[in-house]
Amino acid sequence: MEQQAAFYPNAQEIKDIYGLRGQIEHKIAFLRSQVPKDVKLILIGHSVGSYMVLQILKHAPELPVIHTFLLFPTIERMAESPTGRIATPLLCWFRYALYVTDYLLLTPCPDIVKSWLINIVLRVINLKTELTLMNVIQPFCLANAAYLGAQEMMTIVKRDDDIIKEHLSKLTFYYGTSDSWCPTKYYEDIKKDFPEGDIRLCEKNIPHAFVFRFSQDIADMIATWVKDNLSKI
């Protein structure tokens, strides 16, 4: 996150850059300043990224977005979801205790010990890199992640049906069958409210956190969708 703010000069001008609203404004600023205006866009969002995509459509209607793919979309009732009920008190009320624990335990911990611990975790979850996790467990990153998470729990409550209705032809939703962040009830509700929409339910039992083990499966699936529909969109 610290590197993210350094890459784009306009990031320093965004208020509350590490909050949910600031992150959305940052994405819009990037698209407006770094992407040529004649380049058509296909936006892909995962989890809260799906909420951000909808907000981009709402607040930057001039962007030439031709389609979006919203994967395991946490666009409503986050705090009411099974995982949200657990995460909300931790992120909103107990995160300050987590900050203290992090500073006391991780800050003085030598990098070689951190690397060893991360390697153990990565072997368990079958990942091949430790660079990202080494950055994430820094106190600064953990504090900002918890801060952003707390805002997500408080902000993402009611589904914005106005945005969905306005841009329905550009939206493809992909819900999980065992997703504790957006249960199948959320899928059933949006499917009922927008029966003409492209709203799909995963048939492969891929988890919400697909990036750990199923990133290639999702990438192949999205690539197929884009190839099959590019002429239409």
From TrEMBL:
EC nos: 3.1.1.13
Keywords annotated in UniProt: Endoplasmic reticulum, Hydrolase, Lipid droplet
Top-rank lineage group of the source organism: Eukaryota
GO molecular function, one term: sterol ester esterase activity
A GO CC term attached to the entry: endoplasmic reticulum
The keyword DNA-binding is annotated on this UniProt entry: no
Transmembrane annotation, as ranges: none
Cross-referenced InterPro entries: AB_hydrolase_fold (IPR029058), LDAH (IPR019363)
This protein's record includes keyword 4Fe-4S: no
GO BP: cholesterol homeostasis; intracellular triglyceride homeostasis; lipid droplet fusion; lipid storage
SUPFAM superfamilies attached to this UniProt entry: alpha/beta-Hydrolases (SSF53474)
Location in or out of the cell: Endoplasmic reticulum; Lipid droplet
Principal place of residence: endoplasmic reticulum
Catalytic activity: a cholesterol ester + H2O = cholesterol + a fatty acid + H(+)
A Pfam short name: LIDHydrolase
Chain's role: Probable serine lipid hydrolase associated with lipid droplets. Has low cholesterol esterase activity. Appears to lack triglyceride lipase activity. Involved in cholesterol and triglyceride homeostasis; stimulates cellular triglyceride accumulation and cellular cholesterol release. Acts antagonistically with PNPLA2/ATGL in regulation of cellular lipid stores. May regulate triglyceride accumulation indirectly through stimulation of PNPLA2/ATGL ubiquitination and proteasomal degradation. Promotes microtubule-dependent lipid droplet fusion.
Family: Belongs to the AB hydrolase superfamily. LDAH family.
UniProt-recorded name of the protein: Lipid droplet-associated hydrolase
Name of encoding gene: Ldah
